[in-house]
Design brief:
The chain is built from 8 helices and 6 strands. The protein is α/β, with parallel strands linked by helices. The radius of gyration is 16 Å and the shape is globular. The two termini are 28 Å apart.
Length: 205
């Protein structure tokens, strides 16, 4: 009855590499991202973890990351894909180079859109909006699998995972917007029977 939840932000994507706002667009992993995903799988394997189920988003970069991790683990587990785990929708910023966006709207405004908790870019989502779809999905679909004693692997995105970590770690809006999530670095949670966090370990270095 280990009740273990492992969260992994997808490896670097082609658009991460080009400094573009990605959101719900669907680029695949870069060469570096492929290696990051494989390394994540090896780090999880070193912990001796096996999984009963896995979850990912509807976007290729997260699905590819999950596939590569499972290959490294030598495991084939039932996988659920759901739009609730997608990256934050950046709206009108999607596809723009971050430097070009700063030139168009100003550095301060773009910083507000990127790093505030509840202010969304035009046509897009805030982190709070992202959480509004991530949290119910976690409570109804992922958490029960963990609390039943299973080990669950989730490959998703910087902001969908940030919203989930906010809830798990009990962080304030100010604390979570300052939290950076590295690509391809597994975060291992062990939960208590009441769903609170018993232990958290970041598998890096």
């Amino acid at each position: 009855m280990t009740r273990t939840l492992v969260l992994v932000r997808h490896g670097q994507s082609d658009w991460n590499l080009k400094n573009l706002f990605t959101g719900w667009k669907d680029p695949d992993l870069s060469e570096k991202g492929v290696e990051e995903a494989r390394l994540a799988g090896r780090r999880i394997r070193e912990r001796g973890l096996s999984f009963g189920t896995a979850f990912t988003s509807e976007l290729t970069r997260a699905q590819h990351t999950l596939k590569l991790m499972l290959e490294e683990l030598g495991q084939d587990v039932p996988t659920t894909r759901n739009i609730a785990l997608n990256e934050r929708d950046y709206g009108d910023l999607t596809g723009l180079n971050k430097d070009d966006a700063r030139a168009k709207w100003g550095e301060e405004q773009v910083h507000v859109w990127r790093r505030s908790y509840d202010i969304a870019p035009p046509g897009g989502e805030s982190l709070r909006d992202t959480g509004a779809r991530v949290w119910p999905y976690y409570i109804h679909h992922i958490q029960p699998k963990v609390l039943s004693g299973g080990n669950v692997l989730v490959a998703a995105h910087g902001n969908s995972l940030r919203a989930l970590i906010m809830a798990l770690d009990g962080l304030t809006p100010d604390e979570i917007v300052a939290r950076e999530l590295a690509t391809g670095v597994p975060i291992v949670y062990r939960l208590n029977e009441d769903s609170t966090v018993a232990e958290k370990t970041v598998l890096e270095g």
